[in-house]
Amino acid sequence: MKPSSPSEPSDLSHASHASRWLDTGCRPPQRVPEGTDAAIEYVAQALGHPVYARWTLTVLKRGCPSLADAKREHPAVFALLLEHDAAVEYWERGRLRVVPESTAPSAATVLERVLRQHRRRFRLAGPNDTPGDAPDGALSSMPHAVTEEAALMAALVAPAWLARAGRFANAVVLTNTLGVADDAQAVRLFLRERASHSPHTLRAYVTELRRLAAWCTRERLGPFSDLTRQDLMAYRDEVQAPHAGADGNARRAAPATVSRALAVVSSLYAWWHRTGYLSINPAEGLAAGRRARMTWTPVRFLPAAALTHCDAVAAGDAPVDVLPTVWARRRAIWALYRFAGVRLAELVWNEALALPRIQVDDARQWTLHIIGKGSKQRAIPLPSACLPALRAYRRVRGLPGDPPPGERLPLVHSERGRALGASGLYDEVRAVFALAATRLPPGESAMRAALEGASTHWLRHGYARTLVVDHRVPLPVAQALLGHASVQTTAAYARTDGTQLRDFVEGSFPRPLYALFATAI
Q: Where in the sequence does UniProt note compositional bias of the Polar residues kind (predicted)?
């Protein structure tokens, strides 16, 4: 039965384009990406939970090593796919529902409902919300705009619940280096120092703190500084325990979800204790971060044939409906994400630091300097394969092919001549995927589906897999190139291909040794 909500407007024409919605949780606020698929992925990352996904057995098997693993990780989806060709998993009123595709609402309908349910953060653009002179992808002047931190703090929990201190809060001014006397101010300072470097990290932290606050409210506990070690152990058990899904079957949260929830809570209490706001750290040892990282395996990959096809499309002539200048820019953006393995936000221009920037040595070799997670800068050597597209784009802009020393210009410009924002960069990469999908033979349905669901982060996963699996780059080197905080995250890519492990085993036990052993027997 198709879900319905009589309180929602039946006329969707005003919100038919996702880009008419504004995300006021960003600083500065920006439009939701154009296109349903791009908007769904953006909103899912912003809110920290899935929004809409279409499942088939092919898609399910692609993300799981075996059908047994698929059944264990997605029981409701697996059960439906035994009787139906496709199933849809979508977010409705605070939980995920799984229904046959024939009875599911459309992706656009689900997207609009989710946007309307989060009115504190998303709103329809008004007549005065024209980008005007603001950089692409952002609105610099909004009469009702709020800062990201304030919006997220307001969404975290009722201020009165946090605006007090618990039994473990340190009232001694000399040792409480934060200089605050309640949890609300202490949480705000924690988010500002530990999560403000990335909007996605900030949203993820607030999502997990809201989860903890909701549990405290149900258990009549709190505030955070009043929780004992026993309380936090009980919360850990709650996060790890199976919960009833939309179909009534019990299902456990994914290991990565559990790891993130506990890591954020542990980080909060550890930081509070280090800064003197807490007299003790009741969350010591709460998170099993190392174990979770060891079990995480990246699954969002494009096949090598699909990447080769996309490279060929990007290297070809511009489509008839695309201006040569726009096509040159699109090719340059594709080359940077394809051959540098950067995150989406790492190519967004930072005026204060003049990053990202290109440094060229005496041999005309290029190095990309960026700022990544944790405000950490890193240098990425660019392979010569991507330099022609970058040089061609610079010449189209009227710049020399090689950046001169001390150049302080954004790598990528919008049509108005300003720096292109995250949404604009994302759209350009998606445009290459979309064009590549249209140029596939009719029988390549699986590759077409993969290209239609791919994003910039898929290119990052492909870059990492090329280093770790295909060319067996030492893990510390790959870790430095990718900007991973833990080498275990980098090592996870080695688990995506069993051939590497087999080669190691074969090399360790050569055939002559085995022949001697067999003769002895």
A: 1-10
